[in-house]
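Standup notes
- DV: blocked on the single-chain target, sequence here:
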Amino acid sequence: MSYYKLLKKGIVDENPIFIQLVALCPLLAVTTSAINGISMGLSTAAVMVCASAAISVLRKVIPNEIRIAVFVIIVAGFVTILELLMEAYAPPAINEALGIFIPLIVVNCMVFSRLEAFASKNGVLPSAADALGMGLGFTLGLMTLGVIREFLGNGSVFGFELLADPSAHVLIMLMAPGAFFTLGVIIMVMKFYRAHRAYFRATKGGLSG
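- DV (later): unblocked, structure below
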């Protein structure tokens, strides 16, 4: 599989948020703003790429019986490095917003599914590309929900005020139910679009035949 297809698979075809519906805990907590969603997504993507590359290099020397424990140690090491870098360089507001969800990358089911299904069985570059695609797909999902929830709940996008009237803000969008509502609507629209696209393709094929 080409690197382009690996990236496209993670971003579009098997998007972790909209298609696989995995790693939903950070989705509920950090997508109250677009910048928080992007920060969480890119942080997870960075850990995934580094861990996938490391496990791909070590895959032939890791005993099968303890592979999960080794995966945890490797991911925890990269998460620790990420935490230290964020404490040193990230704005305090982002650190406070992401909070416990950065350490919880260690047990993120999306991360471990890619390590087990792909990185432990493929070379370094394909594994890194697969992890990058999934990480960017995860980031896209968090950012999309963050933009929608921030606009509807606060009247702003990336901190820029677009709707100043507080009476027009839908405060429930900043709560956990708002994330579920937004995700449900996006998935509904995507399924509707795919169903109609498949129908028109089938109809076009029938007419041309």
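- Follow-up: The chain has a mean pLDDT of 90.
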